[in-house]
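To the structural biology subgroup,

Please find below the input and predicted structure for histidine kinase, which we are adding to the shared reference set this quarter. The sequence is reproduced verbatim from the submission form. If anyone notices a discrepancy with their own records, reply to this email rather than editing the shared folder directly, so we keep one authoritative version.
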Amino acid sequence: MFDDKLSIIQNLTGVNSSKLNYYLEVQRSNEQIKIQINRLEILHQLIKDINIDMSLSDIVERVYNRLPQAVPCSFLGLALAEGDCLVMTAAIPVNASLGQALPKTSVLWQSYTGCQRLLYNVNTRPEHICSLVDEQDPVESWGLKSMAMVPLLVRQRVIGVLIVGDNQAFTYGNSELNFIEQLADQLVICIENARLYKEVSKGKQEWEATFTAVPDPIFLIDKNHHILRHNLRNQELALITEEFGDRQKCYRILWNRTAPCENCSLHEVHQTGRGVYCQIQNEGAIFDAFYYPMVDSTGEIYAVILHLKDVTEKVKMEAQLMHSTKLVAIGEMAAGVAHELNSPMTVIIGTAQMMQRDLGNDDPRSEWLDDIISCGMRCKKIIQNLLSFSRQGQFSLKETNINDQVEKVLSLIHYQINRNNIQIIKGLDPALPIVMANGHQLQQVVINLLLNARDALEERDGEKVIGITTAVQDHWAIITVKDNGCGIRPDCLTKIFNPFYTSKEASKGTGLGLSVSLGIAQSHGGTLEVESQPGVGSTFKFKLPLKVPEVRANG
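Predicted structure (tokenized):
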């Protein structure tokens, strides 16, 4: 009886009704909390799934596939600002507005220009926020009855609008709008990161393309002489630098050394903090080397850029021009001296001939006059050869007898060779064919080779021999100069044709002779080869192409 009375009192006073309402409210709150937790989880998972290298279409598609788990969604789109336009950039499903600029009367412009989130319903009621301004708004053609629009903000600047739509009316309220705003905030971060990533990636690709397109080798070298990067100008180098250890050292890869170079310019750059220029000779090539410091954000030099430019041909041309200029000056002086000597020699020979005629052949003194006349004629021949060699004209090729040019050279420098007690052995092939060449330049090469052979014999004790021969071999006419002198070290063989490289004292050589000789040989379509062994001697072969016979038509 007591329990029945208590129940009647609780019903009359509304206690049971309050408890029911309370439990219903708690249940609704729990459901809302579960919905929010679920939305946050979905939001978190979406952001994890989005990569910075994804396109905007991929991002929208990824979000669209997961979004219905959080809010009803049958449409998802991004309208981004491009200059003064608002362009429909990405949409799922795709519609006719994709890629098109939206009219400024569109409801999307209200969200963009007003920087405010908006709700749109096809059956708009006064209490809802916005309605279509123009009947031609593209939104009408999308078939949506509900739509939420949230501006995309980057550093207080609106870059576009996120659109979430559904084909049911009154789908979205403040709860859904809040979630969509959170989604927009996360998406704008992803979009901005993707944009920055593309800009950085594009800049990186442009710089890499520029770096690779430079025809000269460029290297990035750290403090420990390791090559960090290069522009792959040499495929063998690319394979070597993939390995580890000492094989990555610049001095090993670039200069084939086992230890850092003496007076290494890398050290100078690190010490001074300034760029350095130097010229380097390596294995027959000459490089202009430019070193530039790479500085980090703290101002410390962490690496050095090495830019190498092959100037071998340029230096050879400069050397040949310098040598030619010097020869012009020497030739002018020699021509003047030769003319001065020619006049008294003519008088001496003429006077001796007249005295010989007056004395008669029976006079014993006539033999003395024969010696005077013979020596005078020899001097005139030497003077004539010197005049011929000193004439500087235009470079032209004509039919040339190599043996005649060799004989002229020997008559010019015979004394210089003989006074050093050097024996010259000739072996000139009398059947040597005519070649197309410039005689004066051929003489210049032979003189350089003979004088180098003489210098190689200076320190030799015992018999000193220079052999000069001419021969034909495999369509080449070959002038060979061989000596039994000191020879050339293997590490120097690749350098001897470099301009200004010389193993002689500064007063005895400029390092231009062989470089100019090689240039002359190449200009004739030939070459200059060398074989040498230290302590045994050297052999130089000046090879010229044989004259191609003319083909005559029959008849």
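Summary notes: The mean pLDDT is 78. Residues 72 and 411 are 108 Å apart (CA to CA).

Regards,
Lab coordination
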